[in-house]
Amino acid sequence: MMPAPKPAVITFRDVVVEKNGTPILAGLTLRLSERRIGVIGRNGSGKSTFARLFNGIETPSSGEVGIDGKTGRKDLRRHVGFVFQNPDNQIVYPIVSEDLAFGLKNLKLTQQETAARIDTVLTRFGLAHLRDRFTHQLSGGEKQMIALAGVLVMQPRVIVFDEPTTLLDLCNKRRFMAALQELEQQIVVVSHDLDLLQGFDRVLHFENGTLCEDGPPAPVIAAYVARSQC
């Protein structure tokens, strides 16, 4: 395994997101430099919108998001990868190897370099046997692993996961989380699975578009559970 790169410094400065006049996130100012960051909150709390700001899928109505002092959307896309809840929203091509090569086209790599990146990622996670498979024939767990591989071949510094285990059964969930724990990249994970986040460095709790708790996992998760009693 390669040595872990230095975590990026991700900044949110006075970020506001509104849609059709409705506030989704309000006045968010943050500096994130931890290696493992969790994001929790009820449905509709703004946490998924927050996650999509990291790599420019969503853009602020006002304010700015930056990485290592650079605030351009191009810089965010270059350094931050995103794994969707549903891998079908991420997998584009009918053959696994073609899908993994898709994002690399803009990097102007040689065929040999492209093949080497794909082989390295597939071999690392025991997925080499899927290289020539049709993507529509993959199981849910295999699709999620291929979606992760599609991000990893781009060699991002940061990877954001939006509810990555929601559609997985217990066996595939455990496999995916084992793969996640091995990653040397800085990761941000939006999840309702509170146990998953217990070993993280920092957890952010959103409610009604605002950040209401921010700190180590134990107290932030405890406060979230207390607020969520029905």
From TrEMBL:
Where is the ABC transporter domain positioned along the sequence? 10-230
Enumerate the UniProt keywords alphabetically.
Answer: ATP-binding, Nucleotide-binding, Transport
Q: Which GO terms describe its molecular function?
A: ATP binding; ATP hydrolysis activity; ATPase-coupled transmembrane transporter activity
Q: Which InterPro entries match?
A: AAA+_ATPase, ABC_transporter-like_ATP-bd, ABC_transporter-like_CS, ABC_transpr_CbiO/EcfA_su, ECF_ABC_transporter_ATP-bd, P-loop_NTPase
The record's listing under Gene3D superfamilies reads: P-loop containing nucleotide triphosphate hydrolases
Write down the superkingdom of origin. Answer: Bacteria
Xref: Pfam families: ABC_tran
Q: Which GO terms describe its cellular component?
A: ATP-binding cassette (ABC) transporter complex
Q: Which CDD domains match?
A: ABC_cobalt_CbiO_domain1
Which protein family is it in?
A: Belongs to the ABC transporter superfamily.
Q: What is this protein called?
A: Biotin transport system ATP-binding protein
According to the entry, what is the taxonomic lineage of the organism?
Bacteria, Pseudomonadati, Pseudomonadota, Alphaproteobacteria, Rhodobacterales
